[in-house]
Design a protein that fits this description.
The chain has six helices and eleven strands. It is α/β, with parallel strands linked by helices and 239 residues long. The strands form three sheets. It has a seven-stranded mixed sheet with strand order 5-4-1-6-10-7-11, with helices on both faces. Strands 2-3 form a two-stranded antiparallel sheet.
């Protein structure tokens, strides 16, 4: 890290089973462009010299992670995750408290987002540390968006000018995010990402424009697109 810079850490929740992908194993261990999805996602974070360390939250019965060469990097640490994404993130934050300070920044990144570019990662870190307000990478929605009723019919068309598609990393102070996630758990409130927990806690969250290529591999069709993006990055020498 640059001398005098605020410390940044990452948490990667990887305890899921990836049921929507089908197959026999978790989707983060599917291979694309010569490595597993998880390896690409971790390497994208580790490509930044501003990253002090990465806490990887794994399923307690995970037997595959130990076979990944990227775990040999001294900056990668592991802990047991939980049943839900928010449980795994909270477990990762609690494990990080032995290494980091509550005022350090933590970036939570999906294990299934292998195409994160270094330029976007740096942009997020720059904007968040510049004004001290947590933020997330996100993509403005350009499609026409319809609100549907239970009968499958359109209720109305939404104003897309104010709509964004959330991505990761999502970056907040470690202590603030831990408290927000714990409060959501104690209140039995469902949160689908870290920004949701911070919003419920009354904390401001800024949007930082990311790239469409920072896709989350969710269904089999996403693999082909991820492979193409990763191939383009390798050919161009980009992250």
């Amino acid at each position: 890290m640059t001398a005098g810079a605020e410390r940044c850490w990452a948490v990667v929740p990887a305890a899921g089973i990836g049921s929507r992908m089908g197959g026999e194993g978790p989707k983060q261990y599917l291979e694309v462009a010569g490595a597993t999805i998880l390896e690409h996602s971790l390497r994208a974070l580790l490509a930044s010299n501003r990253m002090a360390g990465v806490m990887l939250a794994l399923h307690p019965d995970d037997e595959l992670a130990s076979q990944l060469s990227v775990l040999a990097d001294a900056r990668v640490h592991t802990t047991a995750g939980g049943a839900e994404r928010s449980d795994s993130v909270l477990a990762g934050l609690l494990a990080l408290e032995h290494l980091a300070d509550a005022a350090d920044w933590v970036l939570v990144h999906d294990a299934a987002r292998p195409c994160l570019q270094l330029a976007d990662l740096d942009k997020l870190i720059d904007k968040v540390t510049a004004n001290g307000v947590g933020g997330i990478l996100a993509e403005p929605i350009v499609d026409t968006v319809k609100l549907a009723g239970a009968d499958g019919r359109i209720r109305r068309t939404l104003d897309r000018d104010s709509l964004w598609r959330a991505q990761t990393p999502q970056m907040f102070r470690l202590g603030d995010l831990r408290a927000a996630l714990q409060a959501a758990r104690d209140g039995e409130l469902a949160v689908t990402d870290e920004a949701s927990a911070m919003e419920l806690a009354g904390q401001p969250v800024q949007l930082v424009a990311g790239s469409r290529r920072n896709l989350k591999v969710t269904v089999p069709a996403d693999l082909e697109l991820a492979a193409w993006y990763l191939g383009q990055s390798a050919a161009g020498g980009a992250n």
